[in-house]
Amino acid sequence: MFKDLDPLLHSQLRLAIMSLLISLESAEFTFIKEKTNSTAGNLSVQLDKLSEAGYLMIDKSFRAKKPLTTCRITKKGIKAFEEYVAVLKQYINK
Amino acid sequence: MEAENQTLTTQQSLEIITRMIRQAHGSIKRNSVYLILWGLVIAIANVGMFVLMWISYPRPYLIWLITVPAWILTIYFSYRHGKNSVASSHFDRINACLWYCYGVIIFTIIVFGVKINYQLNPVILLMSAIPAFVSGIIIKFRPLTIGGVLFWIFGIVCFLVDGPWQYLVGAIAVTAGHLVPGLMLRNNPE
Description:
A: three-stranded antiparallel beta sheet; 3 strands; B: 2% strand
């Protein structure tokens, strides 16, 4: 019996964000935007969704008087990502 | 990456995960500046020490003062890297901690040099093998890993020679273990 893939992660941009952050300690908004090739608006919305689910921690601060958004994956996020990959493996190996 | 609601196939999901994990690998080139700087400074200091001892200069150790500007430059480069860093990986942190530990240990060895009868060069060369070898594996850069092995070999050679020759061995070791891999890393297309 296959589990359902987490709908929050089963989306192109959100999966890309989580896959990027899983290997990093933290990353700035501009870095994620560049690497995922997304627009600022869309990225912001998807980051908020992941943050509301507790998958990400978003830290807003300032650097040289400019706003700075830093994201890092949470333990809940790591667990969700690992479960997503495990279910994905089941589908691939069926 | 705009189509948020499109259904992903397992293959597409897998491709996204693989591509993004690859994207997360930072630039390894920035490590090269420290290897080149310290490789060059320590090689010059060692050669200088060898020459000054050879000509019986009364205070050959004064050549090591050239490490003072190297420290200032290192602090400046680390500050600039920290400021411009937009993402940091766990490997970046492990790699940085490895070199910090190395710095602290080398400093301790130098301070307590009298306790080991100033047989500093062989010990420092052997210690240098660890961060070069491990760092080479972390950043997947074989010349640095080979540099680590060369440090170990030159460390042994250094135990077998005396006096000024130890400094010449030290200069060759640091050139082979830090300077050359640093220059290769800088010219590496990644």
